[in-house]
Prior knowledge:
Layout: H1 2-8, H2 11-18, H3 21-32, H4 47-66, H5 73-80, H6 86-89, E1 100-101, E2 120-123, E3 131-136, E4 141-145
Antiparallel strand pairs: 1-2, 2-3, 3-4
Helix pairs in contact: 2-3, 4-5
Amino acid sequence: xxxxxxxxxxxxxxxxxxxxxxxxxxxxxxxxxxxxxxxxxxxxxxxxxxxxxxxxxxxxxxxxxxxxxxxxxxxxxxxxxxxxxxxxxxxxxxxxxxxxxxxxxxxxxxxxxxxxxxxxxxxxxxxxxxxxxxxxxxxxxxxxxxxxxxxxxxxxxxxxxxx
Length: 163
């Protein structure tokens, strides 16, 4: 029907095809779109966000195969090799510190109050420039202002050390 509307191209033809002014209004609204014209703007992940996503995916793989969350970095590394060099992936390029990973937990949980994130599984120890990169249990990364860090909910009730 949309093709026919676009081919005929007039408001009168839209109304006639819909045979109901309310339906015509909905059709016109749908055809007008949201005003978007052009390619979407995609913001690439930072190196830290990319590494944290890979850590979360490896953690989930480990949980699935081991039947429990990895208990330490040595238990995680074989699963992380799928995504690259574990020794490089486990260190933040922003602060030079190993990422803090919450060990031995089931990577589960629902949305929290902070921007739709699920419980945080791993994060930068210090971050840089007033920001810290984190990833939730789904592998969704986000770089958050340091001031917002206390608002985050962490897997298994974990409490980050204060820096």
